[in-house]
């Protein structure tokens, strides 16, 4: 609907030019796009078959899934239009093995993004390893586990049983020439050189992270769900001194379980860092605002966004600690404002996607 020279003009969706329709369609999930527009008219029928398709079967009604499966079965050319594919073993239908048995990865020659949730060993050996190398256009690859890691206690011997597979074989099979974004359950690189600029890891030790910087020197964005203490007793500073310039600009630590001195050692080497988000629990030294100020002024001169939540159940002087974060350095120089509730001090607005209530 628009107004022109005091006249009200009604405009239907079908009257939009193809350029605008294509722009709109690219925001829609492929199965829903076909369910809504495939039988509308011949123009839409042809138009939705001419654009790149993004496919995500998560939480999809069975009727829509079945309909789309019939469409791509009858039209082999349509599979070449799919550039993004997300499959999950959490679904009642459209499971990874079932879908890839009917539609092997080699059919999706233009695939640029592939996300696989809760893989199992059978999926890897039968459908992934034989086909991954054929996906030469792959830009983003994710194989993750959606289980909550908050109660997981790190044990390198239990990672395989917890995640049910070893990532190394998958990483070795990946075509890497165009790969820039990667999401993995835990770190096993074994000297595999990568050109990735963005990485998400579910569980990572601090020495794994140091090693990562050696094999992925172009990294800009790093997100770690759980950063854990070192697996060895080696001097980490010696490892870090072997690394050339680190270009990471954003670091998200959904939960850091390492001591503040190790965290300082890490951050001292991230001189290009512009954004830092971190959650830490039950470490009293992490609340030292003066220590943070010294670290930022000496090593993190480009840091412009700092989001944190520090939690401690036994800290009795929260009001005193809170006051340390109310100086000109925090407010006037950086506009970083904080608040505290019961056992937590955090930047505002609150940045985490959930809030933990205290138990008394």
Please provide a written account of the structure.
The protein has helices at 18-25, 30-37, 42-47, 62-74, 96-102, 121-128, 159-163, 167-173, 206-215, 236-240, 260-268, 289-299, 318-324, 328-333; strands at 2-4, 7-9, 53-56, 82-88, 113-117, 140-144, 181-186, 198-205, 221-228, 250-256, 275-281, 305-311, 338-341, 344-347. It is α/β, with parallel strands linked by helices. Helix 2 (30-37) packs across helix 4 and helix 5 runs parallel beside helix 6. Helices cover 31% and strands 22% of the residues. The chain has 14 helices and 14 strands. It has a 12-stranded mixed β-sheet. A two-stranded antiparallel sheet has the order 1-2. Strand 4, helix 5 and strand 5 form a beta-alpha-beta unit. The relative contact order is 0.06.
Tell me briefly what this model is.
The protein has 14 helices and 14 strands. The chain has helices at residues 18-25, 30-37, 42-47, 62-74, 96-102, 121-128, 159-163, 167-173, 206-215, 236-240, 260-268, 289-299, 318-324, 328-333, and strands at 2-4, 7-9, 53-56, 82-88, 113-117, 140-144, 181-186, 198-205, 221-228, 250-256, 275-281, 305-311, 338-341, 344-347.
Keywords:
alpha/beta; twelve-stranded mixed β-sheet
Layout of secondary structure:
Blueprint: E1 2-4, E2 7-9, H1 18-25, H2 30-37, H3 42-47, E3 53-56, H4 62-74, E4 82-88, H5 96-102, E5 113-117, H6 121-128, E6 140-144, H7 159-163, H8 167-173, E7 181-186, E8 198-205, H9 206-215, E9 221-228, H10 236-240, E10 250-256, H11 260-268, E11 275-281, H12 289-299, E12 305-311, H13 318-324, H14 328-333, E13 338-341, E14 344-347
Parallel strand pairs: 3-4, 4-5, 5-6, 6-7, 7-8, 8-9, 9-10, 10-11, 11-12
Antiparallel strand pairs: 1-2, 12-14, 13-14
């Amino acid at each position: 609907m628009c107004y022109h020279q005091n006249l009200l003009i009604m405009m239907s969706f079908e009257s939009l030019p193809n350029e605008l329709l294509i722009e709109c369609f690219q925001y829609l999930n492929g199965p829903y796009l076909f369910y809504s527009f495939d039988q509308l008219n011949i123009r839409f029928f042809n138009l939705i078959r001419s654009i790149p398709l993004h496919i995500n079967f998560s939480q999809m009604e069975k009727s829509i899934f079945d309909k789309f499966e019939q469409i791509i079965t009858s039209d082999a050319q349509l599979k070449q239009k799919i550039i993004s594919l997300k499959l999950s073993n959490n679904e009642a239908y459209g499971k990874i093995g079932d879908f890839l048995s009917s539609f092997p990865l080699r059919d999706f020659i233009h695939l640029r993004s592939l996300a696989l949730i809760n893989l199992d060993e059978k999926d890897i050996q039968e459908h992934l390893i034989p086909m991954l190398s054929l996906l030469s256009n792959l830009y983003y690859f994710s194989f993750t586990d959606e289980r909550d890691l908050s109660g997981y206690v790190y044990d390198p011997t239990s990672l395989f049983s917890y995640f049910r597979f070893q990532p190394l074989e998958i990483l070795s099979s990946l075509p890497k020439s165009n790969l820039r974004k990667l999401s993995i359950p835990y770190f096993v690189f074994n000297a595999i050189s990568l050109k990735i600029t963005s990485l998400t890891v579910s569980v990572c030790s601090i020495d794994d992270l140091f090693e990562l910087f050696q094999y992925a020197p172009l990294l800009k964005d790093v997100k770690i769900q759980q950063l854990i203490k070192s697996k060895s007793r080696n001097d980490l500073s010696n490892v870090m001194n072997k690394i050339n310039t680190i270009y990471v600009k954003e670091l998200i630590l959904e939960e850091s379980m390492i001591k503040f001195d190790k965290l300082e050692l890490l951050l001292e080497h991230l001189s290009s860092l512009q954004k830092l988000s971190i959650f830490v629990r039950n470490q009293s030294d992490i609340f030292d605002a003066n220590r943070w100020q010294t670290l930022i002024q000496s090593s993190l001169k480009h840091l412009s966004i700092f989001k944190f939540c520090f939690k401690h159940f036994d800290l009795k002087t929260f009001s005193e600690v809170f006051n340390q974060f109310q100086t000109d350095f925090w407010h006037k120089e950086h506009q970083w404002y904080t608040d505290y509730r019961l056992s937590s001090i955090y930047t505002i607005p609150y940045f985490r996607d959930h809030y933990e209530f205290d138990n008394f």
